[in-house]
Amino acid sequence: MSRIEKSPPLRVMWEAQGSDYVSALAWSPDATRVAVGHADGTLAIHDALDGRKMWCHDAHAMGVGSLAWSPDARILASGGLDNSAALWAPDEGTELRRLNAGRGWVQNLAWSEKGVLATTAGRELRLWHAQGDELYAFEPASSTLTGLSWQGEDRLMTSC
């Protein structure tokens, strides 16, 4: 029988109101910002210390499904239910590039240590340069890709 330690209660540091419920969250690598995606497709960046909204834009017509910061925090990737991923300059809130990620919502995004972005959309896995140029599109998997994770610089794992 295991013994469960009583942990201190969680406390609210700040709250932010959005236009719809939160569908995706991601801390910046340096933990100074929080990216928040909403079910209505809006994307916002908040200051992690006080919750101040730095910017908010309509990112995806059918909702935001996933978010991932590049390792150097210079690019934020958002995945939408509209079959696209978008690359953002998080300091300015400028959309840098729109990526056609495949057929299906973009459920998973993951950056390698070298700055390669992997996306899954339905059964499709694609790799992208940080600037948004497609590196490789794999043959569709036998079923929907449900997980995505890099290990180190060049090992990628998916699940279906």
TrEMBL record:
InterPro entries: Apc4-like_WD40_dom, WD40/YVTN_repeat-like_dom_sf, WD40_rpt
Keyword Transit peptide: no
UniProt keyword annotations, A-Z: Repeat, WD repeat
Superkingdom in the source lineage: Bacteria
Gene3D superfamilies listed in its UniProt record: YVTN repeat-like/Quinoprotein amine dehydrogenase
PROSITE patterns cross-referenced by the UniProt entry: WD_REPEATS_2, WD_REPEATS_REGION
Each WD repeat, start to end: 57-98
Residue ranges constituting the Anaphase-promoting complex subunit 4-like WD40 domain according to the UniProt record: 15-53
Any matching Pfam family: ANAPC4_WD40
PANTHER family: F-BOX AND WD REPEAT DOMAIN CONTAINING 7, WD40 REPEAT PROTEIN
Protein name: Anaphase-promoting complex subunit 4-like WD40 domain-containing protein
